Amino acid sequence: MSTTSAAHPVSGNATRNGVFIMLLSMLMFSLNDVMGKWLVASYSVTQLMLIRSLAALVVLSPFLIRRGWRSLIMVDRPWLHGLRALLFAAEASAFYFAVSYMSLADTMTYWLAAPIYVAAASPFLLGEKVGWRRWSAILFGFAGVVVALEPSSESLSLQALIAIAGSAAFAIAILLGRTLRETSDTTLIFWQVTGALIFSGFGLAIQPASWTPVSGQPLMMLCLLGVVAMLAHIFVTRALKLADAATVVPLQYTLLLWAIIFGWAFFGDTPKLTTLTGAGMIVAAGLFIFFREQQIKRRESRAA
């Protein structure tokens, strides 16, 4: 999911292409989740993250070389870039840990709540004004998280709590990305992937026994994990340049549909009614918050 602002579409064809590319990117993210769930059953999260990050850096290397290493490393507020990269690494690790125990639909439900966390935290961290309508939607979205979580002594599991913590880390990383909006996409991705590489390398250094020898098809799948994720990120960026954000950003919620379909097709998972109800509440709240923000931006633009 991305919060990058879109350029104005140049034509109807550009908008249609943007919609198609955004839908394709969400499908690729979903396939990435399926591969991750399958691989984490045999390999540790740190090993998966390490190989995934190395493969992503190889794919990105032509863009990084063209950009120049000095411009990638010598940035303003490096501590902020480092914190953002650390949060994304922790978020990805939490996702793979959670999805190894939970269904794709259950895990994705918690991650789709990230835009709600962003809206709730933005007044305090970014000084953005949030009116009563969006606060109502935020509370409704939080209620959806509680419904999906179905809190009880039995259902309040460690993996569910880690999923919530991971989605919260994702939300904070998005907020930090807003403060770094002047930084190029290439630089942001470089710090994000490098942070995941360092994070996973440190984890393996602490627990070297978590490394399992890998070769052949599993190694190719681990590398493909990083390649698919990077291509999906590139497609999201491209879609936002072709079409207006109000058109393509809501398409991110197709991730939940794919999670339900792929979870049933590949792992035999059937989401519970509480999960579907909570997910519906989260999606409704997220869409309301997004379209309300777009409405306010247009009003402010006309006033200016």
UniProtKB/TrEMBL annotation:
Domain of life: Bacteria
Keyword Transmembrane included in the entry's annotation: yes
Keywords, alphabetical: Membrane, Transmembrane, Transmembrane helix
EamA domain residues: 18-148, 160-290
Official protein name in the record: Multidrug DMT transporter permease
SUPFAM superfamilies xref list: Multidrug resistance efflux transporter EmrE
InterPro entries: EamA_dom, EmrE-like
GO cellular component, one term: membrane
PANTHER family, per database record: ACYL-MALONYL CONDENSING ENZYME-RELATED (PTHR22911), BLR4310 PROTEIN (PTHR22911:SF135)
Keyword Secreted belongs to the record: no
Segments traversing the membrane: 46-65, 85-104, 110-127, 134-150, 156-176, 188-206, 218-236, 248-267, 273-291
